[in-house]
Specification:
It is built from four helices and five strands. The N and C termini lie far apart (53 Å). Helix content is 26%, strand content 15%. By secondary structure, it is an alpha/beta fold.
């Protein structure tokens, strides 16, 4: 209701928001919305959410059902179409996932792909003698082993935490 009141007071020609699903909910059907966000914050509309963090998968359907019921109630109050799932919310805006396509957690199901970063990436710095790389990667990503092998071949001093690493890698 607060977003709706603010939007109705300002009466914008367009709303541009970053990781703001409640703004999309308040404006959808009344004002055009562009929703920007990282790959995590901007999952594909119309598809079930992927369990990106396996321990959170338990109970995810029940949580999504509660959120969907709230969205449906708000939409019904305004006599607007109801969502069939929570991610339908993002279909009520023009959405742009702002991350490198290769790092987008929804890259396997997102169409069109992520548009890239909003800021120019820094030029890679040459690693000096004292340089050390630390990384945190997802073991279920098939590219991780290639990244680690490349670093090993380049003799880069590094330490990586690989979430759910395959036992075969050890």
């Amino acid at each position: 209701a607060s977003w709706q009141a603010l939007i109705d007071t300002e009466k914008p020609a367009l709303i541009v928001c970053d990781h703001s699903p409640t703004v999309v909910l308040a404006a959808a059907g009344f004002y055009p919305v562009i929703h920007l966000g990282s790959g995590f914050a901007n999952p594909p509309a119309g598809l079930p959410f992927l369990p990106l963090y396996p321990p959170a998968a338990e109970g995810a359907r029940e949580r999504a059902a509660r959120v969907q019921a709230s969205i449906s109630q708000i939409r019904a109050n305004h006599r607007l179409s109801l969502p069939t799932q929570v991610s339908d919310l993002l279909g009520w805006a023009e959405c742009f996932a702002c991350s490198l396509p290769e790092l987008d957690p929804y890259r396997s199901v997102r169409s069109p792909p992520a548009i890239g970063t909003l800021h120019r990436l820094p030029q890679p710095a040459l690693l000096g003698d004292r340089a050390f790389v630390f990384g945190y990667l997802a073991g279920e990503d098939s590219r991780v082993i290639k990244v680690l092998e490349s670093l090993a071949r380049a003799k880069v001093k590094c330490s990586f935490y690989v979430r759910q690493a395959s036992a075969a890698w050890v």
